[in-house]
């Protein structure tokens, strides 16, 4: 018995966690050093017969409970994971798997947990697609997703369109504004008509009457944006078409959405030419309202434009932009950086983008921290669309700009807030593994729920350690 040794690192660690003990507390109970406990848990030291006896005396555990499975169980799980078609081209022998399980059990457990989460997410996505009649198995079947991916891959920046728009903006300025340019270059006049005459349109190009028609309820910023977008269609069509061609979109719907998106991009670039806007951005320290006043644009238009300032050699702070309604529906999501919540983020109730509706038109700032420790700075405010006359329908939404914490001191909004504690948020409940969150609405994928017949946690869900 004195010569008996075995490696039980993962089992000892799980026992310690199930008992709610730290390594120092277990070490005290077993009369060994905390560093020795750490070495045992990492399988850098064996569990001797003497240690097993101390474990049995201290925690009333059966030897068979500790020895059952161990490395053989890990090897079996690893073999199963490596049979996944995703890893079919990875050649790994049984002896290599055994080496991983024996020498790096913590890594093996982490890999198994990640693979389990991946498989469950696959099933969840498959179920969602089945619930959508006619949904394509490919993301290319969703035009919105395809265009978002197209923009994200280019950091929402199109230097060629910026240059062309900047040249056009200079011509418009020289000729006295949009109306004068449209008349001189295209023999078109600008007319503002009542909503009932526009019949559901906010802008219409009427070649018969040689006019660009606008809904008279549009505010000045929206009217200018619509005129700029019309000019983008009239004069920048070749550049837009070339950019759309680079997307290799699979169908007309997606190409049309991409064309509309890039025409809006050009409209913003005409109203806020890259060089002048980028210079003002630094001078005003990203003061969105100040920039909007200078360029005659809306808060949302200006915030949106800030996500596009990534021209090589003239980069500014990379932002993530999101627009949500009071019900939490995301209607716009743009990304000029590498933000982890660019694809799924926006659903955490602890993020103040959802709380700005209580403080209309007020700037709300917040430091954010994701479960992996990444920190960000958020600027949010409500915006409105529609309206413009009595009883006209108006829609209130909230928009937020988010940058990495390392850029926050370049924003005027961060002044005096350097010592404010960050709010712990998640990308979305089903993707967030911060298990102590009391605002959680659903359990994260890959975690096992604890029964509550013995203990009810103060959070909505309790989770097992494995």
Automatic annotation (TrEMBL):
<dbReference type="GO" id="GO:0003677">
    <property type="term" value="F:DNA binding"/>
</dbReference>
<dbReference type="InterPro" id="IPR018653">
    <property type="entry name" value="ScfR_C"/>
</dbReference>
<comment type="similarity">
    <text>Belongs to the short-chain fatty acyl-CoA assimilation regulator (ScfR) family.</text>
</comment>
<dbReference type="InterPro" id="IPR010982">
    <property type="entry name" value="Lambda_DNA-bd_dom_sf"/>
</dbReference>
<dbReference type="GO" id="GO:0005829">
    <property type="term" value="C:cytosol"/>
</dbReference>
<dbReference type="InterPro" id="IPR001387">
    <property type="entry name" value="Cro/C1-type_HTH"/>
</dbReference>
<keyword id="KW-0805">Transcription regulation</keyword>
<keyword id="KW-0804">Transcription</keyword>
<dbReference type="Pfam" id="PF01381">
    <property type="entry name" value="HTH_3"/>
</dbReference>
<dbReference type="Pfam" id="PF09856">
    <property type="entry name" value="ScfRs"/>
</dbReference>
<dbReference type="InterPro" id="IPR026281">
    <property type="entry name" value="HTH_RamB"/>
</dbReference>
<dbReference type="Pfam" id="PF06114">
    <property type="entry name" value="Peptidase_M78"/>
</dbReference>
<keyword id="KW-0238">DNA-binding</keyword>
<dbReference type="InterPro" id="IPR010359">
    <property type="entry name" value="IrrE_HExxH"/>
</dbReference>
<feature type="domain" description="HTH cro/C1-type">
    <location>
        <begin position="12"/>
        <end position="66"/>
    </location>
</feature>
<dbReference type="InterPro" id="IPR050807">
    <property type="entry name" value="TransReg_Diox_bact_type"/>
</dbReference>
<protein>
    <submittedName>
        <fullName>XRE family transcriptional regulator</fullName>
    </submittedName>
</protein>
<dbReference type="GO" id="GO:0003700">
    <property type="term" value="F:DNA-binding transcription factor activity"/>
</dbReference>
């Amino acid at each position: 018995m004195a010569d008996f040794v075995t490696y039980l690192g993962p089992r000892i660690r799980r026992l310690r966690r199930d008992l709610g003990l730290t390594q120092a507390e277990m070490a005290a109970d077993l009369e060994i050093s905390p560093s020795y406990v750490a070495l045992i848990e990492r399988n850098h030291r064996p569990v001797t017969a003497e240690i097993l006896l101390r474990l049995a005396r201290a925690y009333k555990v059966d030897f068979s409970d500790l020895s059952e499975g161990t490395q053989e169980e890990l090897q079996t799980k690893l073999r199963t994971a490596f049979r996944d078609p995703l890893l079919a081209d990875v050649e790994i022998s049984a002896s290599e798997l055994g080496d991983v399980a024996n020498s790096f059990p913590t890594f093996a457990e982490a890999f198994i947990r990640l693979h389990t989460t991946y498989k469950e997410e696959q099933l969840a996505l498959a179920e969602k697609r089945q619930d959508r009649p006619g949904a394509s198995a490919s993301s290319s079947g969703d035009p919105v997703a395809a265009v978002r991916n197209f923009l994200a891959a280019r950091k929402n920046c199109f230097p060629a369109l910026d240059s062309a728009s900047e040249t056009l903006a200079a011509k418009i300025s020289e000729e006295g504004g949009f109306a004068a340019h449209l008349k001189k270059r295209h023999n078109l006049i600008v007319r503002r008509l009542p909503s009932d005459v526009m019949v559901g349109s906010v802008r219409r190009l009427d070649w018969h009457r040689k006019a660009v028609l606008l809904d008279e309820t549009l505010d000045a910023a929206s009217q200018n944006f619509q005129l700029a977008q019309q000019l983008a269609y009239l004069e920048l069509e070749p550049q837009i078409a070339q950019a759309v061609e680079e997307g290799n979109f699979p169908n007309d719907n997606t190409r049309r959405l991409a064309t509309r998106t890039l025409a809006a991009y050009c409209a913003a670039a005409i109203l806020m030419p890259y060089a002048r806007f980028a210079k003002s951005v630094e001078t005003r320290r990203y003061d969105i309202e100040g920039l909007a006043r200078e360029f005659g644009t809306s808060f949302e238009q200006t915030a949106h434009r800030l996500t596009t300032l990534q021209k090589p050699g003239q980069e500014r702070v990379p932002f993530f932009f999101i627009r949500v309604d009071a019900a939490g529906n995301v209607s716009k999501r743009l990304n000029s950086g590498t933000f982890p919540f660019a694809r799924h983020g926006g659903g955490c109730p602890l993020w103040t983008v959802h709380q700005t509706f209580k403080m209309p038109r007020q700037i709300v700032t917040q430091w954010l921290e994701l479960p992996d420790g990444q920190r960000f700075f958020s600027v949010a405010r409500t915006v409105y669309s529609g309206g413009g006359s009595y009883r006209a329908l108006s829609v209130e939404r909230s928009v937020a700009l988010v940058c990495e914490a390392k850029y926050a001191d370049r924003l005027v909004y961060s002044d005096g807030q350097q010592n404010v504690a960050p709010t712990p948020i998640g990308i979305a409940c089903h993707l967030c593994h911060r298990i102590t969150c009391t605002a959680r609405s659903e359990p994260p994928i890959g975690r096992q729920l604890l029964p509550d017949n013995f203990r009810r946690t103060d959070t909505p869900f309790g989770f097992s350690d494995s």
